[in-house]
Amino acid sequence: MKVSISEVSKYVGQEVTIGAWLDNKRSSGKIAFLQLRDGTGFIQGVMVKSEVDESIFQTAKSLSQETSLFVTGVVQEDSRSSFGYELLVSNIEIIQEATNYPITPKNHGTEFLMDHRHLWLRSRRQHAVMKIRNEIIRATYEFFNSHGFVKIDPPILTGSAPEGTTELFHTKYFDEDAFLSQSGQLYMEAAAMALGKVFSFGPTFRAEKSKTRRHLIEFWMIEPEMAFYNFEDSLKVQEEYVAFIVQSVLKNCSLELERLGRDTTKLEKVVAPFPRITYDDAIKFLHEQGFEDIQWGDDFGAPHETAIADHFDQPVFITKYPTKIKPFYMQPDSENDEVVLCADMIAPEGYGEIIGGSERIHDFELMQKRMEDHQLPKEAYEWYLDISRYGSVPHSGFGLGLERTVAWIAGVEHVRETIPFPRLLNRLYP
Fold it and tell me: Which of 28, 91, 169, 331 counts the most CB atoms within 10 A of its CB?
């Protein structure tokens, strides 16, 4: 019976066949230990020389790393492993023998591993990160579907930019100028006016020449928009959503978190509601912490965000940033029009901003003025003006960066490990 490694718990005491690759091996004179993987998980195969033909045992001892094979044996419980099961191997059928596999169990440099990303994905660490990424995606759909949101897919090719064109990739769309999308937000606002509560999940692109551990050129965003939701309503959705995906990973990816050496006690504290601090109070706090360089009206850098996050055990909202450093579409605070009703959610442990969101402007006259202030071409945004021209309502939304969120939850230092094939400033291969 052919089964996957993830299914072996159902077949204890039974003989099964698993299609697998050899991750690693070791052997003594009498026993061969085969570390096997099949994509669904990892299991140890144990072959006892006295219980198999000599030729089969010699085949097992000579197997090379990443050789593909069918392995037949009896599933048995193994309390010594975190997985809980092992395979008592009785037969091996080689599918293809791999020779000179480039990524050996020894240490390799980052550039070498990135050049071989297509193979590096096979490693236990990368497998764990991708499984956690998948769980966050699965939980995202579960959360928004169960809360009445409709999935909408905004275009990737656009004729305008929601936050300016300086960090956009330009291309030609036949005889017109076009850009790769840096956000689907404006389109999601239009969709919210049709469907109430919507969310998108797709790739976005930023031509930002940054080499920090938090930046990718191509990354994935989850962008909900909600009609009739004010700023406070949106913050509640954000903290409930983030708490939900964290708890889902804790529940469903315990083996992967253990493999990565993640301190899960920090994740267990991620329960809504989250603490909040206004931009004004954040400036005061940073001055008290010795950051005399930051002044009111400046945007926060990574050291500032980390200092604020370190003060809390959970993700923290920094709210009400100065109007002049935020995009044109954000609703001003009715009590102080020098700030807008926005918030950045800062992840703990130095992972920085994972969510940016705001209440959106819904007043037609104000939207027109903001566009003029930002010198945006009216003809390119005429369709967007229609949102506030025809039956507009208060509405709010946010965007969560998937890779930064994966890095934080998995405890991975650099976002390049949180996407299957990263696109970095100097990397378009493989």
Answer: 331
Q: How many CB atoms lie within 10 A of CB 150?
A: 14
Domains present along the chain, CATH in parentheses? 5-96 (2.40.50.140), 117-417 (3.30.930.10)
Its sign, for the CA torsion 213, 218, 222, 228, is positive
What backbone torsions phi and psi does residue 388 show, to the nearest 5 degrees?
Answer: -90, -10
Rounded to 5 degrees, what angle do the CA atoms 356, 363, 282 make? Answer: 35
Report which residue type is found at 100. N
pTM: 0.97
What are the structure tokens assigned to 270, written together? 């991620």
Over 90: is that where the pLDDT of 159 sits?
Answer: no
Q: How many angstroms separate the CA atoms of 122 and 130, rounded?
A: 10
Q: Which helix (H) or strand (E) holds 223?
A: strand 218-227
Name the nearest CA neighbour of 95 among 120, 54, 122, 63. Answer: 63
- Quote the tokens at residue 429: 């291969």
User: Which amino acid, residue 242?
Assistant: V
Q: Is the peptide bond before 275 cis (omega within 30 degrees of 0)?
A: no
> d(Cα 238, Cα 110) in Å, to the nearest integer?
34
How do residues 10-69 score in pLDDT, each as one tens digit? 999 999 999 999 999 999 889 999 999 999 999 999 999 999 999 999 999 999 999 999
